[in-house]
Predict the 3D structure of the following.
Amino acid sequence: MRGRLTLVAGLVMTLVCLAVAAIVLFGIRGLAGQYNVDQIVSAALKTVRLVKLDQLPPALPHQGIAGVQVLRPDRRVQAATPNLQGQPPITDFVPPETSVRQDRVICDLPAFPDGCMTIVAIRVYELDGEWMVYGADPAVPWWVDPRLDMLLLLGSAALIGFTAAGTYWLLGRALGPVDAISRELATITASDLGHRVPVPRYRDEIHRLAETANATLDRLEEAVEQQRRFASDASHDLRSPLTAMRAEVESALLDVEGTDWAETGEAILSSIDRLQALVDDLLQIARLDSNTQGRNDPVDLGQLAAMELDRRRRRIRVVREFEPGVVIPGDRLRLGRVLTNLVDNAERHANSLVVVRVYREGDEAVMEVLDDGAGVPPDKREHVFQRFTRLDAARSRDAGGTGLGLAIARQISEGHGGSLCIEDSPKGARFVLRIPVSR
């Protein structure tokens, strides 16, 4: 990456240097051309002075330019530098009537073949008419001078070289932490998430990138660890009913004649029910974890609670206190699952009574499920909503639970924009579900 960026910087700098060199060359050529014209004008003005003083000799001195020629009003050559003696007029253009001087660049003149000359024409007013003084010198080429071109090229090459070296060094300093982060990320695998990328000391964008990457790795490691614990707990809970069924079958096979097969079948069916409940809960957890969107229909929470409670008989007396007209938007099946899980949990822990209440409180619909059991200690109220969690004190009474019901209920309630928690109660546990009446 650093090499590519250096190459790009070198190409950009090359184009910039070429553009600057062209601009400099163009500017120098303009100055050189103007200097060339000034030299010719200076020489021609000296000749004009001789014309005015009537001291014009037939042979004019060179005066540092290629040639000077003086023409009479009838266009005959009156005087010229030695190299133009006997030559016809070097050009036929004259300054415009509004000016006494004009200069042009003319190529392939008879007196100066195979080249371009800068010609300056100056009109001189005399009594017998207008005399013309022409000065000529080679025109400045577009490259001005090979030595200047070589100097510009060498300067551009040196500047490009210094820029490339500086860019490579600066990119090395700037991208060094990125390379270190890339190397460290390449060593991280699913089985080894303990690595973290180095964080640069300077608080810049790369520093924030490293911190973000480390925070992402923290969340990823936590999620993977949670999945591992979940798989381990699920395997343990799945193995328990399978082990129970295997023990029943093996015990029955050891004494085929004396086995009460009806009792054995009942025990196996109980284990199958527990296994099926656990599989159903695992499937529900998988759906919720995949963020699958449920329906968003208007649901009368009181009617839904009454319907769910009527679906099967309860071992414990259930008291209903439903306020009519408490309607919320949501998924009827999932909300029914919340009520079922809460009532099943209350039934397993209650001594003789479970109370289900539905009412509206402000902009929220509230459903409470209370039991008259031992309750949940305040320091364990959040712990019970974790997956595969059953409190030690209640394990003997919670043998029928999967350890997933309360976790599923909370996840569904949060998916509806609500909350599920345990609040204070004079006796037993009081689970309170709150869901906004509109979303």
In short: The first helix runs from residue 2 to 52.
